[in-house]
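[stage:ingest] chain + small molecule (NAP)
[stage:ingest] validated
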Amino acid sequence: MTLRIGVIGTGAIGRDHMRRINQTLSGAKVTAVSDVNIESVRTARADLAPEAEVVGSGEELAASAGVDAVVVTSWGATHEQYVLAAIAEGKPVFCEKPLSTTAAGAGRIVEAETAFGRRLVQVGFMRRYDAGYRMLKAVVENEIGRPLMVHAAHRNPSVPEQYITPMAIQDTLIHEIDVLRWLLDDDYVSAQVISPRRTRHAHARVEDPQIVLLETKSGIRIDVEIFVNCRYGYDIQCQVVGEEGLASLPDPMAVVMRKDAKLQSAIMTDWKDRFIDSYDLELQDFIKAAARGTASGPTAWDGYVAAVSSDACVEAQSRPGSIVPISLPARPALYN
Ligand code: NAP
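[stage:predict] done
[stage:export] tokens:
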């Protein structure tokens, strides 16, 4: 059976996922598309899914008899309404991060899915599908004893003018927030943000770099450097220090060159390339589960916890140096 997918939001990542579904992955095709931007949806359809129907709204798309499962790739603030529409139809839904721009919104999705009684939602935290992070998780769980500390870094060469300080949490750190709690199988209890000396390469509305300090329930201390004008490349680092040893995320494979009296290898510059295989794997996993009427991978609960933790980090940004507690309600049984 070919899973019929409707895509809501035909911007950059929406098109990328349409291309994946129709040209790279197996078991699904895009049969419907929707976007508030009519020009965008027409072009995306013509280029990537000429047989798909253009539907007037995301809600209509979710209800369409020609759609078995939904992919939400619209602007973040609209995710909640479209995920809720898919749940109301009992259809599996893949939602790009963030699940919702507010913790309350993500909580409403958890409530709706819990009331439905079966998992339908997968959140697009693709790093969990990255081969490097998976290898690191196996080593953390089996080789280096109890984890004690994590040193991580998220560096971009530069960011556009519209990137402002809270986005360092909501758009950048959000990936570490999710992947580190998955890696450590732990939740956060507090957040603190401190600011080193500013780089002269940052524009006025973004504090850069920043250091986020997180503490987990079991007492692991995490420091994440966010440096979004680092100039030299897109670089993701993660080192876990355990009782018996230390493990680091492997760098992406790159040829090592000896030339002009230098030993060198290239560093990526575009974030789109860094986790490119993970996007394929996460969507293929979604297609497989959705064909059985359910979802796998990162849950709506993971999306909710990320939203609560992200809010605490943004609050910590606004009160430099202060420690902001992170508290979560009990996890519903559906997500155990
Ligand atoms: P984008 O290029 O701006 O695309 C978003 C699209 O959604 C635009 O076509 C926009 O129309 C449309 N839209 C806005 N409001 C809508 C509504 N009410 N209903 C339907 N469509 C609507 O953004 P993007 O880069 O693709 O990002 C989309 C989402 O994916 C964001 O939440 C982003 O955080 C997430 N994302 C995740 C990753 C990842 O690494 N997992 C990577 C990239 C993006 P207009 O053109 O009229 O605004």
